[in-house]
Amino acid sequence: MKRVALFLAITFSLSGCSTDSSNSIQGEVVNCESINLKKGELSPLECLGGGAPIATDEIAGPALINVWGTWCKPCREELPHLAEFYEKSKERVDVIGIAVEERSQAVVAKFIENNGMNWPVLYDADGSTKAEFGLGVPVTWFVDADGEVQYKKFGPFRSLEEIEMATRKYLGVK
Fold first, then answer.
1. What domain range includes position 34?
2. Helices of type H across the chain
3. Are 173 and 92 in contact (CB under 8 A)?
4. pTM of the model as a whole
5. Which of 13, 76, 79, 117 could form a disulfide with 112 if both were Cys (CB 3.0 to 4.6 A apart)?
6. Residues 46-76: pLDDT tens digits?
């Protein structure tokens, strides 16, 4: 009897971790030509979707620059919230990803497509953004229309509402 109860408990707990692919959103590796830019001085990063390389200090917002990794569990947990924010706000606020500490662009591109990411992603092949963004991920910077960083969020977003509130507060975008 105890074995049956243990088996059922394990089965139910593991089934809660599975993903339902019937509700998944297909992602797309997006060209970076849509990003608002200004003159910058930092080393440019390659865009996974094509277009000219872009330095992070060239980005003029309003924008959220989200530094993440495919290997980062908190980064993966915040993705549905960022995807929902992007779909609701893409006409008013750019969302730009920076993939760090990755094995290859192919790994990142596959992750993007499998996880419903539909915004431009820059690829930091040599870790050059560590000096600017720090070592931990996820990190999200809120950049205003002049390209000035108004807020740095360390750690994952826990909800769409958290992103929306910060965007209103730091960028004045509703």
1. 27-171
2. 2-15, 73-89, 105-114, 130-133, 160-171
3. yes
4. 0.78
5. 117
6. 999 999 999 999 999 999 999 999 999 999 9
